Prior knowledge:
The complex is a heterodimer. Chain A is of the alpha+beta class. Among the domains of chain A are: about 1-165, no CATH class; about 510-615, Tick-borne Encephalitis virus Glycoprotein, domain 1 (Sandwich). Chain A contains 21 helices and nine strands. Chain A has helices spanning about 1-25, 30-60, 65-70, 80-85, 90-110, 115-140, 165-180, 180-195, 200-230, 240-265, 270-295, 305-330, 345-375, 385-400, 405-410, 415-420, 425-440, 445-470, 475-480, 485-510, 615-640; strands at about 510-520, 525, 530-540, 545-555, 560-570, 575-580, 580-585, 585-595, 605-610. In chain A, strand 5 and strand 6 form a beta hairpin. Chain A is globular. The two termini of chain A are about 50 Å apart. The model of chain B is unreliable at about 1-15 and about 120-129 (pLDDT under 50). Chain B is about 60% helix and about 0% strand. Chain B is an all-alpha fold. Chain B starts with a helix and ends in a 15-residue tail after the last helix. Chain B is built from five helices and no strands. Classes of the chains: A alpha+beta, B mainly alpha. The interface between A and B is large, with 57 and 47 residues.
Amino acid sequence: MIAEIGAFSVALALALSLAQALLGLGAGASPPRAAAASACAQAAALLCLMGFACLIAVFVVSDFSVSTVASNSHIDKPLLYKIAGAWGNHEGSMLLWCLVSAVFGAVLGTLRGGQAMGPWSKAVGVQGAVTAGALIYTLFLSNPFARLDPAPMQGSGLNPLLQDPALAAHPPMLYLGYVGLSVPFSMAIAALIEGRADQAWARALRPWTLIAWTCLTLGIGLGAYWAYYELGWGGWWFWDPVENASFMPWLAAAALIHSAIVTERRGSLASWTILLAILGFGLALLGTFLVRSGVLTSVHAFAVDPSRGIAVLVLLAIAMGVGFTLYAIRAPKLAQPRGFAAISRESMLVLNNFGLAVAAGVVLIGTLYPLLVEALGGGLISVGPPFFNATVAPLLGLLFVLLPLGPMLTWRVGDLRQALKRMIPAAALAALTFIGSLVLADWRVAPAIGLAVGVWLIAGGLIYLWMRVRRGEGRALAKLAVLPLAVWSMSLAHIGAGVLTLGAIAETAFREERGVALAPGESVEFAGRRMTLLEVGDAEGPNYSATRARLRVERGGDVDTLATERRFYPTAPAPTTEVGILSAWDGDIYVALGEAVRDRPGVWALRLYHNPLVQLIFLGATMMGAGGLLSLIALQRRRRAP
Amino acid sequence: MTWFATLIVATAASAALGDPAMAARARALDQEIRCVQCENEPIAQSTADIAADMRRLVRERIAAGESDDEIRHFFRQRYGDFVLFRPPFDPRTWLLWLAPLLLLAAGAIALVRRAPPASGLGGPEEGDR
């Protein structure tokens, strides 16, 4: 019964979002119709919420007569993962997509935020069409409430790799980001229909872009963290097609955040901002397609289904077809841009967009290229980390070299010499880092450059903060407290990018790794520590059994212990590894338990890793996400106090 | 006597590479070679038996004095292009490897052609916030 209520709610939500689309797009200058569209959006969101609550309910009570529950859950699963199971599969995650789209539509319909009536009601209408498209797909091609007859006695369980708190939160975060980009898309289409994209429009666009980018940042960060401690080999980013699928919209959203600032503050770049908003949503849909179709070989291959992939591709074609056609017709009529000099805040933001867009383009080409070669009869090739590290990483490095200069230049005409003069301390620190790294790390040039760029970014962000503190009268500390939130948020995000760079370069270039075979009581020297295997024994979890090893780690006078497990889930064919991690200021000791060594009773294979500065990767991503959140708060405050 | 030398080298290699530089090369290659069973993981990550065999092959060949390129070539001969995460540079992939430069050039041309006129600029009219 619960499942039928859920299916009915979702069907009603579809009818309401179609009404939302027609009323919003047909509202013209009629406030009652716009109000009706907004009411439909709110009702559709409530109904989607109801539908999703029903899905969670059938997962919690383990109703295996519902096909999605039977194939993705198990009676013995802990409650948290029964709930998370609702979105840890194709059907449920599509319903989540619809829910997020509908809720964003309702918020857009409720908070007009200083927009003119015309573009606002049309944006609500387009958002209704987006929600309706997703709901049609969900209801007719992947109904999460479909019944099984006869119902199985037991479910087949969730992939044990996914039974993890970070991964319970990872998909909802990413979906908030992907679907968050649908709102800028709707606003861009509305602006094209109306034939104007003014500063008020850009001001209303910015919070949505920030929400999408912040959620993508945190979602990707969670995914990277999960890969780091769950996959058992210390990897956190592998330029896997599905990782790229989330990185492309992230790059587009990062570009959009910056171009929308220019459009809001100066009225320039409006047509580029619109194009980016359309492209960003296109990349988000492409991401959904890549994940859902399994067209590319990938570690995320548990989400494979080609026929559904084609349907997502059709939705993508419709959205982009409408978007680009409107853009081609209307964009030339948009207001003429206001001028700026070759050295100015605007020009730096244009360069930022140039770099981010090229990076997104390279990731796109690299991700899809194997498909192209195969389609043209060139056989199977792989495009993996060696390609992206050689192309995208230097591109982002160049971008990061320019980044700290941007905030130091003024709008319209900037003073490059003054900005460079202010950056002298950062340049000195970066040079020291470069030379120090060369000397300490066997004259390897690439990581030395990378570390120097990271230091340059961090120092540049701090110099900018110092510059803002020194401006005006009063004591420095007092002024630090009253700095505008927008300054803090930007600095936090930019410094976070530097912190992430340091961690990523150090971990990639200087990781140590060693395979050993130890019996309890035996020791080995590794990364300046003495590691002793204490014991290996059996352990029981809620729905798995495990072999657990404990190790002692001694450095100087410090003694710590860590534990690592191999888990056997009765529902899974292969054991999974729970690594033991010991974090210190200079990096992580990371130990993965292998199998018992053949022919040598009591001896176990262990893989030892030292991952220098690896926590900076996750700290940097968190700082960037926090910067996005603060920026959102800053925008809200400014709106309330005009 | 050569077979004896080979045997000694192979036995030494299958245990571990003593030389840290060689071990580092082996680990780098492990990241570049795709496990042929799981097809979505490098052999550095895969727990499959075949991946362990492939890792051993990498070490044996390094110990036998082969260069990284020779080892890549060996795996490509044996399993096809798909096994290497580093795409080859040949007519099929010229477009791929040149894509970053082409995109940069196209973007730069677009920037120069569509740059808004820098006319009528005085001093800064509005401070940054």
